[in-house]
Amino acid sequence: MGWYLWVILGYLLVLTGFNLYRSKRVKTQEDFMLAGRKLSLTTMVFTLVCTWIGSGTFIAGAEYAYHAGWSALWQPAGAFLGIGIIYFVAGKIRTFGQYTVGDILEVRYGKFARLFGALALIVAFTTIVAYQFRAGGYILNVATDGRISLGLGQTIAAAFVILFVAIGGMVAVAHTDLPNGIIIVLACCLAVPFVVIAAGGWSHAAQVLPPGDFKVFSPDFGKYPALKGLSYFLSTLLLLMGVQSMYQKFYAARSPKEAKRAVAIWIVGTIVVETIVIAIAVFAAAYNVEHQTHWDPRSLVLNAARHMVPAPVGVLLLGAACAVVLSTGMNYLLSSSSNVMRDIYQRMVRPDADPDKMVALQKVFVVALGVCA
C-alpha cells in the first residue's frame, strides 16, 4: 500500500509549490487574514465545505456510525440547520466588513467581551488544530499499515498545516481548500456505490447489522433516545454558529451577494458529504462484521478506501481524508492567530501597529500556536 502514501505526499508537495507561488500576492494584513476580500463564489463554496468537514466527519463520525448506525446522522444534522440560519446573515456580515468575531462582540457588548471571546476562541481553536494533527497521523498510520508511526504522521500533518498557513494566510487556506473541497465531494460520491455493493447492498447489511442501526433513534442512545439525539443536534448547531473561520470567509467574499449565494450551495455540499460518509461507515461496518476483519471503528472509512473500492477511487478517498484534516487544521490555525493579532495585539497592545509588521508578526504566531497544538 506504499503507493497510496506517495500519491498523497506528491499532492501535498504540489500544494506546497502552489502556495509558495500564491504567497507572493500577500502584502497587507487584509491579504493575509482575508485574501484581500476577493474570494470568488466557487472558492467560497469549497472553502466553506472544508471549514466544517474535518476529522470529526471522517474519523469520529465513522466511529459513531459503527455504534449507532444511521442515527449517527443526528450529529451532523444540527449543522444543516445552522447553515440554513447563517444564510440569512452572511450578506450582513460581509457588509460589516471586519476581521473576526471579536469585532462583532465589541460593537454589541464592549471591548472586554471582545477580549474574553478572543481568549476562548484561541484556546478552543488551537485544541481543534491539535486533534486535526492527531487525525492526520492516524490516517497516515492506517494508510501505510503502520509503516508510518502515529507520532511521525502527526509531525508530517503539523508541518504541512503550519507551513501553508505561515506562507500565505487566507490566500493559502482558500486556494488549498478549492482543490481539497473538490476531492472531498468527488471522492465521496464515487466511493459510496462501490462500498454499498461490496457490503452486499441495503438488505444484506440490514441482516448483518443490529436492527437498532436502522432506527431513527438508536438503542445506543440510552434511556431517553430522543433527548440524546436532540443533544447531538443542538451541540453541532451551536458549534457551527460560533465557528469564526466561517465568518472570516464571509468577510473575505467579493460581495455580500456572493457570500449569501455561497452559503446556499454550501448547505447542499455539507448534507451530501456528511450523509455519504455515514453511509460509507454503516456499510463498511456490515462488511467488517461479515468478514471479521476487526477494523478499528475509527478507521471504517479509511479501510473502506483500501479494501472495498477500486484502487483509483480508494486513493481519492484516502486523499479526501487527508484533505479534510489539512484544510480544517489550516482554517482553525489561521483563525486563532487572527484573534491574537486583531483582538489582542492590535486592539489592546499596539493600536497604531505598522501593517507590514503585523503580517510578519502574525506568521510568528501561526508557527507558535501550531507548535502548541
Quaternary state of the chains: single chain
- What structural class do the secondary elements suggest? mainly alpha
Low-pLDDT runs of 5+ residues are none
- Percent in helix: over 70%
Order of helices and strands: HHHHHHHHHHHHHHHH
Element layout with pairings:
Blueprint: H1 2-22, H2 29-34, H3 41-52, H4 55-68, H5 74-87, H6 90-96, H7 101-109, H8 111-143, H9 150-198, H10 201-208, H11 225-241, H12 244-252, H13 256-291, H14 300-307, H15 311-349, H16 355-372
Helix pairs in contact: 1-9, 3-9, 3-12, 3-13, 3-15, 4-13, 5-11, 5-13, 6-12, 6-13, 7-8, 8-9, 8-15, 9-13, 9-15, 9-16, 10-13, 13-14, 14-15, 15-16
Question: What are the key terms here?
Answer:
single chain; 373 residues; mainly alpha; Sodium/glucose cotransporter; globular
